Amino acid sequence: MTETTCAPVTVVNHPLVQHKLTLMREKETSTASFRKLLREISLLLAYEVTRELPMTNRRIETPIQPMDAPTIDGKKLALISILRAGNGLLDGILELIPAARVGFVGLYRDPDTLQPVQYYFKVPQHMEERTTIVVDPMLATGNSTVAAIDLLKEAGAKDIRFLCLLASPEGIKRLQEAHPDVSIVTASIDSHLDDHGYIVPGLGDAGDRMFGTK
Ligand SMILES: O=P(O)(O)OC[C@H]1O[C@H](OP(=O)(O)OP(=O)(O)O)[C@H](O)[C@@H]1O
Ligand SMILES: O=c1cc[nH]c(=O)[nH]1
Ligand SMILES: [Mg+2]
Q1: Is 138 touching ligand 1 by the criterion CB < 6 Å?
Q2: Is 13 annotated as a binding residue?
Q3: Which of 120, 126, 128, 207 has the fewest Cβ atoms nearer than 10 Å?
């Protein structure tokens, strides 16, 4: 029997990330602070998720002499946010790579079935030519991420990475079974899911905490 080899799962253990994540987990943290921390963490996680981006050389002139210098071709990158909470990770990465193309997959998780319900889909053209980074702070059951990546692959995407803040072991297993080619970057793999599909210890509902809804 042949075993499927999965793309790597990277946990970003950097002290700055872990410190900010602890502040985000605390239930007394305000909506304003939560949003600010998510933005700050997104800049740090962007460093890891963009590590293997393809580079090209561009001819430039330094004050001393011409050289072929490495650059990222931002236009070849597609950043895909899973609405709503994905936007909290998107903004920081977009600030670092402003030329990136941006898409949105609108999904919410039905609280009873824990199945994703799609309400929006808009992605850049020529997805097959791009490196795609999908962002959503929470990988819980994995149903939302798997559904989003199903849709992105139907749209042509091939080279896909997934960035989240918190992952559950169940969500990682589900994503790896459905899409073993997709690498995962996260700030933490938490303990398990509770009976309502929430990550334990987690941070609660990321979208509600970002936007002050409930
Ligand atoms: O792995 P899953 O079990 O599918 O759960 C994770 C999903 O749940 C949250 O979104 P939610 O449905 O709350 O929508 P929101 O971002 O609009 O709040 C989260 O941002 C993920 O998209
Ligand atoms: O713990 C969880 C699970 C799903 N969605 C969230 O926002 N948090
Ligand atoms: Mg939510």
Answers
A1: yes
A2: no
A3: 120
Which ligand 1 atom lies nearest to the CA of residue 82? 22
Look at ligand 2, atom 3, and give the residue with the nearest C-alpha: 198
Domains, the chain, in order of start with CATH, read 9-54+72-201 (3.40.50.2020)
Phi-psi region of 204 (alpha: psi -120 to 50; beta: other; left: phi over 0): left
Between strands 199-200 and 159-163, the pairing is unpaired
Ligand 1 contact via 82 beta carbon (within 6 Å) = yes
Residue 86 assigned as binding residue: no
Task: Supply the ipTM of this predicted assembly.
Answer: 0.97
Report pTM: 0.96
Closest by CA position to 178, among listed 11, 4, 52, 49: 4
Per-residue model confidence as pLDDT tens digits over 85-136: 999 999 999 999 999 999 999 999 999 999 999 999 999 999 999 999 999 9
